[in-house]
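Query form — protein LRC45 protein

QUESTION: What is the three-dimensional structure of this chain?
INPUT:
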Amino acid sequence: GVRLLLHGLCTNTTVKSLDLKGNNLRRMGAEALGKLLRQNKSIKSLTLEWNSLGMWEEGFSFFCQGLRANNFLQHLDLRNNQINHQGAGELAVALTQNTSLQELDLRWNNIGLLGGRALLNCLHSNKSLKRLELAGNNVPGDILKAVEQALDHNQDREVILSEAQNQVNILSKEVLSLKDEKNKQFMDFVDTVDKQKEERARSAKISAARVSQLQEALDEQYSIMNSLKTKLQMTEAALALSEQKVHSLGELLNAMKQEQSCIAECHFRELQQQKQEGADREGRLLHDLSAASEKNLLLRNQVNELERKCKVQQDQLFQVKQDLTNTTAELKLRAVEAEERLEMEKRRFKQSLEDMESLRLKEVGRMTQHMEASERSMHNRIQSLEAIRISLEEELSQVKAAALTERGQAEEELIKVRSQARLEEQQRLEHLEKKLQLMTESRDEAQNCCLKQKEMVVEAQAKAKQLSLYADGLKRRLDELQQDLDSKEEEKVTELNKVKVELQEQIGHLEAERTAQDGLREKIAALERQLKALSSNHREALLDKEGEISLLLEKLRMKEAEISRMREEEAQRASFLQNAIMAYVQGSPLGTHTSRK
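ANSWER: The structure tokens for LRC45 protein are given below.
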């Protein structure tokens, strides 16, 4: 039934505690328990009290093999199972490789001295066992004390490891939080830089669009100027035709034509000069214009006004031509009037041209000033933005380099401190363990010697008791014989000689026995003296050992004080590192930059 039950529990994942106390499990039950310990991963507590598992060596060895392969059991109760020193040795071998068992109860078994030593030796490699009960196993007290010391050492080691792990976890969490904060700050900074870049790109696109608009406006102005040039050429051609028509009218008309041609040439030169100046100024405007789209509309309106004025002038010229054609027949009679009219028209034309030029010059000057001011402001803004971008890129590179270097240094220092602390703790623990092993070995040897001497004393005392009992028996026999002699003196007077001879022989024998007893007594006294000397020597050796043990205890206390001091120093170092990291994070330029933002 137990075999079937344990076979079913091999694949169970919900049972945490199993109590099989007092079920008379035998070899098959022990093998089933070993198989259960190998396959089951949920049972944490197993109680096997009053089952006599130690009587079946093969089954108990199979059980120990299962315990060696198990890494989930934490509590095991093996009380009153008749486990001898061999079973304790197999348990010790299993415990050297088990890393999960924390409590083991072996009370009221037959472990003895050898089993206690095996369990004590296994505790040097097993660091997880915290409680081991060995009462009622004929284990010497020094081994029990050594086992308690080893268990206390395991508990102290686990406490130290848990504290160190907690500190490491706290520091790792703080480092991760600092890394996350730095990453967030860096990402925010990168986002701001990207936004600034996008704004710059948008401003560049807007400026390019404005420049394209201005260039289109300039092209329109060029087209307008070309149209004006063509109109001027048309006017010149019309004037040439009028001169040719008037040439036949006479010398006055020739003079008028010459004067008109001279005036036209002067105007043409002035126009060419104005064109050159306008071309130069327009070239300058091409280089200087960056953002004047609104004022181009004003220029367009002004150009439209100029075109209207030119149309008016053309209409006036056409009217003059009509007047000339109408007055060709009457030129001889009205030459004076024609001359006066021509002079008046020339003056009006000159005044209109001068007004146009002055207005255009004023407008061009205003436009150039405004464009220069806007261009300067744009250049200044671009320079400031470039300076800001360069400074931000430099700060970025510096912050990245500083963060990387400091991060690497902090990680290296943490790794070095941890490795040094671990190496120092391991070296000290190994040194103390070696010393404890040597002390336990010397103590075991001394105890063995004491036990041998005690056994010899007990044997001698037993022999002395036997001899004293034999002497008492002989005395009683003598008394009986004397009583028999006294009672039979009257009856056996005739046999006195024979009795005397026999008595003398018996007395001789008794004297020989007395001499032998005296020799034995002397031997016993010598042995007692030797025992006293050995006991005194043993007491002295015990006193020396106790002194050495006290010295070692003082050394252990010193080492524990050093370990506590090292813990405090490590805690101070960790706090210093934490404070330094926090101060670095608070005082870093990246932190100040984010705080400013």
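ADDITIONAL NOTE: Strands lie at 17-19, 45-47, 75-77, 103-105, 131-133.
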